[in-house]
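for the writeup, i need someone to sanity check this before i put it in the appendix. the sequnce is what the collaborator sent (i think, or maybe the updated version? ugh). structure was predicted straight from it, no edits. if anything looks off just tell me and ill rerun, i have time this weekend
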Amino acid sequence: MKRARTILWAHWRTLLNFYPRAGIAWTAIAGFLWYGFWLFAAVAAGRFAASEANVSFLRLALPGGLFLVFLYWQAVPLLMAATGASLDLRKLQAYPIPPGELFAIESMLRVTAAIEMMAVVCGAAIGIALNPALPWWCALGFAPYVLFNLFLAVGLRDLLMRAMARRRVREIVVFLLVMCTALPQILLTRGPAGERFAAIFRKDLWIGWPWSAAAAIADGSNVLDGAAILLLWMLAAAAFGRWQFYRTLAFDQEAAGAGGGRLPSAARIGEAFFRLPSMILADPLAALVEKEIRFLARSPRFRLVFLMGFTFGVVILTVSFGRRTFFGADYLTAVSVYSLLLLSESCFWNSFGFDRGAAQIYFLAPVPFSRVLMGKNLSAVFFIVLEISAVTLVCRAMGLPVDARHVMEAFAVAAVMTIFLLCAGNLLSIHQARGVNPSTQFRANAAGRVQAMLAIIYPVAFIPVALAYLARWAFSGGWAAWGFFGVLAFDTLVGVAVYRIALQLAAKAAEQMKEKMIVALAAGDGPIAG
């Protein structure tokens, strides 16, 4: 595995040179908050599993807990369009590295997709090893279960990436993925809540499932049968993952993404869609907006999150919280805000990421940089309006509470949040610029500094909207709506003033940091990509 150590070393050096060292404090803060929580959960799981008095409840809850670990490990990274680190095979195939070693490295990298679950499983394993009522070797049952999840994650990721690399197929894949992930929640919503909870955590689950087999080994109740079943699952997952990985090695992504030309009627409709900004705006702003709309509409990475906004958001929030029980009359607004947050990476926080090295044209063209930022902001607004319109149509088709007031409220809340998010996004796009591959459907996790900033920016951006809801609660009768929209109108005026100031500050910062910004955008990934 000497070559594996070389690849990992190259990846580590790439990370050190890619992210600015000035953000190490923010990285530490974000890491402490997020991973500190999961470390606390791992310690709590270990202390619980180590207590002799909790053995009976441990045997009751362990299968369901391992099932939740399985769901998080396999489904959550794919739904967040961020599957952790993975090998960039196009950069490694030129080297004499056996495919078996590449598969082993890729399997190890699957830990980064759900390192939180790895911590929890390790905590539970240590607790079981220290439990005086259980043999210490029972904790070894978690090892094949972890390998099962790693191998399966490799196969699912490669299968999904190849499917989404094909034109006119990725949209169908996203829709089917959303439906499959919503299926468990739909099944759980049948019957009373107590029965659903007991169905997950009861002990009489079929031992043929991998999580049930791992639990049977860990609690010592049926070690031989559990070990045989779990080993079969692990070998099947390894065969599936290896098969899909080898197919990805021989896969030509460029050829799969290429397709025949569009029909003349479709081409005319698409051209009319892209030319919409020119009907309202004047050049050069119209040309800038049209360029952004054309590029984002053709980017698989952006189309993935755009489709998830009005499919995943509506379906998951509906089956999880019901149509009226949680959000009530504000359901459409809640889904719209969720969709807005999904689009935020491409529309707000790294608006120059898709331009990469080509961003230098903005500093050479005789156009003020503030006008460039306005073009990107207007294209973001265009897609946000399109997204919320699609959410409204989907909610209407599903029979959810949608009328003129709900639509006005959703657009008004999204507009206020968009203004304040654009203020912060323009500054972040300059100070934290980084290149993004538009043809990659899955995104890499943002730097720790950006994550820590977002943990502050999102709550601050929601404060003006919260004041509007507070005004609606304080007033009664017909005055409630007037108070709500009146506060939002005032927030809009304040937001526009703040936006103009932030726009000038961002343009000035871009002129001062243009060399650093272009170098950061043009930087390439190492042998391991996000």
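Strands lie at 86-87, 528-529. The two ends are 22 Å apart (CA to CA).
thx in advance!!
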